[in-house]
Amino acid sequence: MDAQHRAQRSGPIWWITSIASWLLLLVLSALIIATIVVPYLAGAQRYTVLTGSMSPTYKPGSLIVVKEADANDLAIGTPITFQLESGKPTVVTHRIIAISENTRGERVFTTQGDANSIPDEKPVIPEQIRGKVWYSFPYLGYVHSWLTGEQRKIILSIVVTALAAYAVYMFVSGTREGRRDRRNRAANVDDVQMSDDIQLSETATASHNESAGHVTTL
């Protein structure tokens, strides 16, 4: 039974399954960290791209993580997320194509979508800017939009718990398997030693009997 179990645990199917499981665990963990933990710690915001104005850079359904930025540090070519109207919740993400100053001496930004043929009609002032795009993930925006705040908390709790439980299971299973292998190796060594002792005993007995059969009488 142990030999069969070891064969199953060391065969190609077991290795492929184990590697695939660990890779899936790492990918899911990395996604959770990148899309939830890092933005939370950095004070960044997550947005879903709804239109194709920034294609192919950010296609519809992409999740973009936007980090707060000082208007004085923004440069031409930077994609920014800004309010269409100052103080209003509706935002858009376009790229800066020109920087100038208004009559009040403020920096203003001319923006344009990568897929658009003309610049945006109105320049963007610093008060409208929510931040610059830090990084993005394709398609994850659909999930972000589909889940409400309460649903997102529930799903996240379930996923994190499941990942933690699976990681513990894999660790305990691997540790237990390692202990079993060490016990089996130790048992095999004992069996070999016992076999050698038996052979030595049998050899000694045979030699003794042979000597007894050749006693010289006077």
TrEMBL record:
Region forming the signal peptide: none
Alphabetical UniProt keywords: Membrane, Transmembrane, Transmembrane helix
Subcellular localization, as worded in the UniProt entry: Membrane
Name of the molecule in the record: Signal peptidase I
UniProt GO MF annotations: serine-type endopeptidase activity; signal peptidase activity
Domain of life: Bacteria
Coiled coil: none
InterPro entries the record matches: LexA/Signal_pep-like_sf (IPR036286), Peptidase_S26 (IPR019533), Peptidase_S26B (IPR001733)
BP-aspect Gene Ontology terms: signal peptide processing
Source organism of this protein record: Nocardia globerula
PANTHER family: SIGNAL PEPTIDASE COMPLEX CATALYTIC SUBUNIT SEC11
One GO location term (cellular component): membrane
EC number: 3.4.21.89
